[in-house]
Design brief:
With 493 residues, the protein is an alpha/beta fold. It is built from 13 helices and 22 strands. The strands form 6 sheets. The chain has a 7-stranded parallel beta sheet, with helices on both faces. A 4-stranded antiparallel beta sheet has the order 1-2-5-8, with no helix packed on it. α1 packs across α4 and α5 packs across α12.
């Protein structure tokens, strides 16, 4: 295995594919270099002398500027590199006109729905409209486990602390997310569970649900019944009886919507896992399916690449607003827009937000951007979509599910165990992580460094996704990890 890789031909730095020892001469694709100090895996080494103030190039783009002179062979990291990002910018539409080859869609074994796309799971969901009834929701989910089987693949309560004491757009977002989940294709049956005096009660949620299959949804206002457990179980049994008759049938992959997310990233994420997801995204969208890229703050520094891939100027304008509106959100709280790479990111070799963004956006592949979505807006246009949501792992993954993703592909270099409301496939950027955390990791993209081609790995991921869509359990599902996190954007009364 190579020890060092230069990602783009004009890069000033290369990335260590394994720990490097000071003084050893190491070949890379373009030359050789002798590190002046030990370099951890995933970290950057300077390939030539870099002057103080000079932009440092990686992925073919600037990832910041040198804060001091950096000699060839030096370790390039937080001690000598600083972001070039600032506030809102003006952009010009310079389309790159990506061309995408069309493919016939393959099939997966799913559950067709009377309204909307097929589900890849047939689960019974309990969705509280307000945090006050969370414990009732959990108690009902526990009692209803006896209903699992014969078409009911699981019973889950998606608790949250919101639904009351909210105002304006913040309250509307909560209502819309809950409505999106209540109409999600993975839910064969839904119990909307309310208290009765909350701001976002059932009567406020229902208008946000649009057209839906009413036979799959039941509602319960707990203040209106004498025994909410008896009433709730009766409704869940009614839903389960219908679901017990349902079976998987072949469904075309153009009906799949897959969310793209990364978290706990390292310096290899943008070299192995994220490009592998990008190949998958191109494969699925070429079949007429849809992918969703989110975590807008992790687009800062790579946004012009996505803007150039917008199919028309209207989508470009929406992408500009997507980026600048999120920067304005940061600035409204007097927060710097570039304060993003986490301690784990930095320990793994990611230095600046541009460094992180250029790796993050590899997940989008090379196809055209065909949709730009507001937070909690559902996918309407097949192809690659951009979604407004923050970088926080669970908040962003929940947003992807709310926008219609039947599963989420989640790349990681450090590892994470969580699961969002839909199957959450963990893709390791390096094989040591995949081997160490077998109970967390579903797919090893580190195999790219052992001889697999990117195209082979991308096809392998496509096959894995189809297996998950057909019922194969992800690690988060096997572990029983299913959580919900709504984006809080306003005051609490």
């Amino acid at each position: 295995m190579n020890k060092l890789v230069r990602i783009a031909s004009g890069d000033m730095v290369a990335v260590a594919l394994q720990p490097l020892t000071a003084g050893e001469t190491i070949a890379y694709n373009g030359g050789e270099i002798a590190p002046l100090e030990d370099i951890p895996m995933g970290h950057k080494v300077a390939l030539r002398d870099i002057q103080k103030g000079e932009p440092v190039i990686k992925y073919g783009f600037p990832i910041g500027s040198a804060t001091e002179d950096i000699p060839a062979g030096g370790h390039v990291h937080t001690n000598n590199l600083h972001t070039l990002l600032s506030g809102a910018l003006e952009y010009e539409y310079k389309p790159t006109h990506p061309v995408q080859q069309k493919r016939e869609p393959v099939t997966f074994m799913g559950y067709p729905r009377a309204v909307g796309r097929p589900g890849i799971r047939n689960e019974l969901w309990i969705i509280p409209t307000v945090g006050c009834v969370n414990d009732i929701a959990n108690a009902l989910a526990k009692a209803a486990q006896r209903l699992v089987g014969r078409g009911v693949e699981g019973v889950y309560a998606f608790t949250h602390p919101y639904g009351c004491s909210q105002m304006g757009g913040d309250q509307d977002n909560t209502r819309q997310v809950l409505a999106d989940l209540a109409t999600h294709p993975n839910a064969g049956g839904v119990l909307l569970l309310g208290l009765g005096c909350e701001n976002s009660g059932i009567d406020q949620i229902l208008p946000h649900m649009g057209e839906y299959d009413q036979s799959r949804v039941r509602t319960l206002v707990t203040q209106n019944v004498e025994d909410e457990m008896d009433a709730g179980m009766s409704l869940l049994e009614e839903l389960a009886a219908r679901m017990h008759k349902e079976v998987r049938v072949p469904c075309p992959a153009d009906q799949l919507v897959v969310g793209l997310k990364c978290g706990g990233s390292d310096g290899l994420s943008g070299i192995t896992a994220n490009p592998t997801i990008g190949v998958f995204s191109d494969l699925l969208t070429s079949m007429g399916g849809s992918t969703i890229l989110t975590e807008v703050p992790e687009m800062f520094g790579a946004e012009t690449i996505l803007m150039g891939r917008c199919e028309d100027e209207g989508l470009f304008d929406k992408t500009v607003h997507l980026i600048n509106d999120f920067k304005a959100y940061f600035e409204s709280y007097h927060m710097p827009v570039y304060e993003n790479p986490s301690p784990g990111n930095k320990a793994g070799g990611i230095t600046t937000l541009e460094d992180k963004a250029l790796g993050c956006t590899q997940k989008s592949g090379s196809g055209p951007v065909r949709g730009v979505l507001k937070y909690a807006e559902k996918v309407q246009t097949p192809g690659l979509n951009l979604l407004s949501a923050p970088g926080n792992d669970l908040v962003a993954s929940t947003a992807l599910a709310a926008s219609g993703a039947q599963m989420v592909l989640f790349s990681t270099g450090r590892g994470t165990p969580f699961g969002c409301p839909v199957p959450t496939v963990k893709i390791a950027s390096n094989s040591p992580l995949a081997h160490k955390k077998r109970n967390w990791i579903d797919f090893d993209a580190g195999r790219l460094l052992d001889g697999m081609t990117l195209e082979e790995l991308g096809q392998d991921l496509m096959d894995y996704v189809l297996a998950v869509a057909g019922g194969k359990l992800t690690r988060n599902e096997e572990n029983g990890f299913h959580d919900l996190a709504i984006f809080k954007q306003g005051v609490t009364l």
